[in-house]
Give the backbone structure.
Amino acid sequence: MSNSIFENAKMLAGKTALVTGGTSGIGLGVAKRFQSLGADVWINSHEAPEDVAATLEDLNSNSALPKVQFAQADMADNVKIDGMLDGVLSVNGRIDILVNNVGIQHVSPIDEFPAEKWQQIIDINLSSAFHLTKHCLPGMSENGWGRVINIASAHGLVASPFKSAYVAAKHGVLGLTKVTALEQAEKGVTSNAICPGYVWTPLVEKQLADQCKVHGLSKEEVIENIMLAPQPTKKFVQIEEVAELAAFLCGDLAGSITGASLPIDGGWTAR
């Protein structure tokens, strides 16, 4: 591999990447970037294959790039996670890059927060990252190279009201990231967390109605006074910015970056 992602457009050739929550938003952006760098990419979602057919067709429209494949699984179900991994390994034989990106959100005061929503968010946002990391690490260690990239959040570093489960899960992701880094430090495997601020994704868009209800504000007021208020740049982080950071973390020049929680939040956590 080249020392610079700008010197070698195919620096990930021969690598297999699995991106959870990879059919939209940040996950899809990361998948596209990895594909452009030559990786064999699998994108995960709980959706039915027919529902992601158009996305796959678009990704695979350029025959010069490796084919992106779909790995269906509900990230709240450990049995289905295991089945998905078996499917990927039966085709590619290895997973070199794991991007734990899948996430859901629910906005509610703690005293009104549904217990089932709490558990679902912890299962999908945190526990799935543990299970996937656990199963991917042995192969990475054996091969002497691997990248675990956890898409956390600025909410892994700071808190906001009405997001108890999400904030708890993302703080947990940062802890898992650090432990993974320490355990794999001498094995050629790095583990890092990217902590975006507000990125305009389907997940964020779906939050708008809940945020409006909780705060008693219009959609425009929520965007201006809630979402972008903590970001000094006063603009949404771009998906491509997150994807490029993920790509850099896969390069040789990022080999000493491990156990890091990397904000890309328009200055939010600089306060």
About this structure: The mean pLDDT is 95. The chain has eight helices and seven strands. The CA atoms of residues 199 and 238 lie 6 Å apart.
